Amino acid sequence: MKNFEALGLSQPLLDGLAEMGFETPTEIQQQSIPILLKHDGDFIGLAQTGTGKTAAFGLPLLDLIDLNSRDTQALILAPTRELAQQICGQMEQMSQKMGKLNVVPVFGGANIMNQIRDIRRGAQIIVATPGRLMDLMKRKEVKLDALKYMVLDEADEMLNMGFKEDIDYILSKSDTGRNIWLFSATMAREIKRIVDTYMVQPEEVRINRENIVNTNIDHQSVQLKASDKIEALRRYLDYHEDMFGVVFCRTKRDTQKVADELNNNGYATEALHGDMSQAQRDAAMKRFRNKNLKLLIATDVAARGIDVDDITHVIHFALPDDPEFYTHRSGRTARAGKKGVSLALITKGDNRKLKFIASKLGITFEPGEIPALDAITEKRIARWSENLKNQEVNPKISDALMASVIEGFEDISKDELIARLLTKEYNSIYKRNSIKDVNDRSKSRDDDRGGKRERGRKNDKGREEGMKTYFINLGRKDNINKGALLGFVCDATGITGNEIGRIVLDGAHSFIDVKEDVANQMEKLNGMQRDGRELRANEHNGRVTESRDRGSRSGGKGGFKGRRDDAGGGFKGRGKLDRDDAGSAPRSGGFKGRSTKKDDSSFKGRDSKTKGGKKGSGRSKFFGKKWD
Fold it and tell me: What pairs with residue 500 in β-bridges?
């Protein structure tokens, strides 16, 4: 395998690469750099993301630039501002031993006047997104008289993002004898059109897909319920202490939701999507590059500029539709010969798409497992023990304070003290995590469109397996609903919502199912006060059926100012019935609202006649041709 010295690069560039830690060129670099240094013409490089394309065109470009001229000699087009910034940063790093070189980034979302000022100072290389560059060209701020090289990086992605007209404009207005260097992952039809229209007998380097998708990447998939995906992320973060990765979501909304939920539970993550301002995006990327984040949650488009070393995991929160996007995503890990994991979190309905991606890319997805809570606990306790042993003693702790604390622990043995410290750490782990089996493969209607809560199998008493039922002397008469009761129990006992199942709310009391592992925490409720009432919480072993009591009833023939009851009184409210009321006994009282019965002669509102006066046609002005 060649080294960089064998490629014909100048010594200042070699010195800069050595300082950056680059030793061995990638395949696209080995094949492209010698051609670009010697070939005075157009060039096509076909290789996937993550193969080192920036250095493949950046190194020869730096060697060919005349540092003594302040003219703009090279334009590099990139699809996103993040990628433009990334290219600009790498060019500056690689040229650090060359002397004075002015590389100017140009992209939307930043102050255009500042960019104009930087260009006027003399921009030998401009790295730009198509839209902002076209704007500056129309303002005549970018002068292309001395242009020698036009680089189109990620050309297929620029076309996918709708920059076709912009690229045509730029290429047509910059035809001054410059060479075009086009780098792309695919030779799509629109790429072929650009080649045929603007390029002359280009040299071509094509890196085979088999060499790209990637021998150092471990491709895994885990099937789970969509509602468990965030829990799965939390478990991976808890288990893999050194995890440093990118999570790909389908939409901007999903990206923000995942980041918010993880942050709210104490995990260092950040969203990256198109609705964020440039300052927000820059701040997120800076935190990620500095490794102040464990995970960056991103959309495909926003992640185009992510070129960060040492990424351990790429996680597909939702699979992409296009196998090429999977390649772009997974190429973020396993850089520079390192190992990496590409993990797909899939639901049962994703299996066909996963097989399609595997067959198109020639890869195999190994089935993975979400770390179990026991394994997480064992790892975290081991790390906690090691950290405790290595904890330096604060020199500010006085001898008197130390003696006082030692005296306070005289009655407790060493084993008892360790057990209590361990219990505190152990409880914090279980309080933070759900105890459910996230790797559950049981059938469910849950999918990526929404999370229907998974219910376990019920026994003959109506209770889910693995649960205990508790009686609580709180009910509707205490001005509480199921949501309020759930929140009260969680706050008072430390039990999480994922550990609570069925809640049956009646007039003066309620029943609540709790995971057996944490059921004893329900006893904390005994003796507590709520609105002056002393609470009782006792385990209940009998069968529980939910009462149909929904509040106070008026009884007899009086009017009911709420939901309709089973008596004959009129309903002085809206005519929208609860589902629980459907099929109840016929009512004799009048209904002063809409009716769902076409033959209800007592209905004193609009009937279901059509304009022609025919009855029973099932047509309604409000619900269309057919309604129930």
Answer: 514
CA gyration radius, the chain: 33
User: pLDDT: is 604 or 238 the higher one?
Assistant: 238
Strand order in the sheet with 179-184: 103-106, 125-128, 74-77, 149-152, 179-184, 43-46, 203-206
DSSP assignment of 28-58, as one string? HHHHHHHHHHH--S-EEEE--TTS-HHHHHH
**Position 451 pLDDT exceeds 90:** no
Q: What is the distance between the alpha carbons of residues 266 and 264, in angstroms, rounded to a whole number? A: 6
Q: Give pLDDT tens digits for 484-512.
A: 788 788 878 888 777 888 888 888 889 99
* CA neighbor of 521 nearest in space, from 422, 620, 430, 611: 430
HSE-CB at 507 with a 13 A cutoff on CA atoms is 7
Tokens 């471990």 found at: 218
The DSSP call for residue 413 is -
- Which of 233, 219, 297, 220 lies closest to 438 in space, CA to CA? 233
One-letter amino acid identity for 523?
E
Residue 567 makes CB contacts below 8 A (sequence gap 6+) with 553, 554, 555, 556, 557, 560, 587, 589
Distances (CA, A) of 64 to 93, 94, 200, 586: 17, 14, 20, 91
Alpha-carbon distance of 259 to 272, in angstroms, equals 9
Helix (H, G, I), strand (E, B) or coil at 620: strand
Beta bridge partners of 504: 511
Q: Is the pLDDT of residue 315 over 50?
A: yes
- What is the rounded average pLDDT for all residues in the chain? 81
CB burial readout 99-116, b (16+ within 10 A) else e: eeebbbbbbbebebeebb
Partners of 505 in beta bridges: 510
Enter the pTM of the model.
0.52
Burial (Cβ within 10 Å: 0-12, 13-18, ≥19) of residue 451: middle
- Predicted pLDDT of residue 620: 38
Residue 225 CB partners (closer than 8 Å, separation 6+): 347, 440, 444, 446, 451, 454
The tokens for 606 are: 């609009």
* Pairing relationship of beta strands 500-505 and 510-515 according to DSSP bridges: antiparallel
CA distance 466 to 133: 63
Q: What is the pLDDT of residues 356-410, one digit of tens each?
A: 888 878 899 999 999 988 888 888 888 889 889 999 999 999 999 999 999 999 9
| Cα–Cα distance, 213 to 328 (Å, whole number) | 10
Tokens found for residue 240: 């893999």
Could you give the angle at the alpha carbon of 282 between the alpha carbons of 281 and 284, nearest 5°?
Answer: 65
Give the separation between CA 622 and CA 337, rounded to whole angstroms.
65
* Contact between residue 334 and residue 214 where contact means Cβ atoms under 8 Å apart: yes
Low-confidence winner among 58-72, 432-446, 469-483 (lowest mean pLDDT):
432-446
Single-letter code of the amino acid located at 214: N
Query: How much is the average pLDDT of 75-89?
Result: 90
In 236-316, where do the E strands start and end?
245-248, 269-272, 295-298, 313-316
Half-sphere exposure of 72 (CA within 13 A, CB side): 22
DSSP 85: H
What angle do the packed helices 53-64 and 27-38 form, to 10 degrees? Answer: 20
Asked whether residue 336 carries a pLDDT value surpassing 80, the answer given is no
Task: Judge whether residue 100 has pLDDT over 90.
Answer: no
Q: Give tens-digit pLDDT for 120-175.
A: 999 999 999 999 999 999 999 998 889 999 999 989 889 888 899 999 999 998 87
